[in-house]
Amino acid sequence: MNSYFILALFFYSVLIQLSSQKAVDASDPTDGFISLPLNSSNFDIQRPYNVPVGHRYSFIHGIHRLWVFSTDKPHSLTSKTSARTEIRIRGYDYSSGVWQFEGYGYVPKGTSGVCIMQLFGASQHATTLMMRVYNGSLSYYRAPILVPHIYNRWFRLNVIHDIGAKKVKVFIDGILKFETDDRGGPSHYFKCGVYAQNDDSYYMESRWKGIKVLKKRD
Question: What range(s) does the Alginate lyase domain occupy (predicted)?
Fold first, then answer.
């Protein structure tokens, strides 16, 4: 077997490997999932209890805009939690299976110390996942940082929760950025918007479009 033929075989095998890798990389986090129907009745807007919805939320040209001030009241008279304006997705609470949240988010510069998306429900905590923004970085809770520069741009967020495997995956712009164990709990649901955390800025805002809830095909 001459050296030219061996070299050709080598380059061919490299090309095959690269093609296979591209096929893997090209996979989308929603592959194998079914997008479930959503309408306005599924979007429960939680906002400071003493403020009309329109003073903290708008929906124009397909974009949900949610904002809150650090001095705002909680979302109910009995709540001891911090200020928030959030979309609580109703109709798709779950306790088994593989579920996914997808949405395109936008955080304007200056918003900090805030949770912009939650996977609610856990055994020893309130949440299984929080996506927070601190000084322009998007993080899982306080750390680790998943994206260092998130201000003033649209980004695609996909969060997959596999109850059976007890795993949570976070994709940003289609790329797997983080994977962790879940935190248990009997029931879960998704939220997005702004929910003040530690070291919060006075004004907090996030915008969302293309919100979906998906379930893995059986």
Answer: 40-213
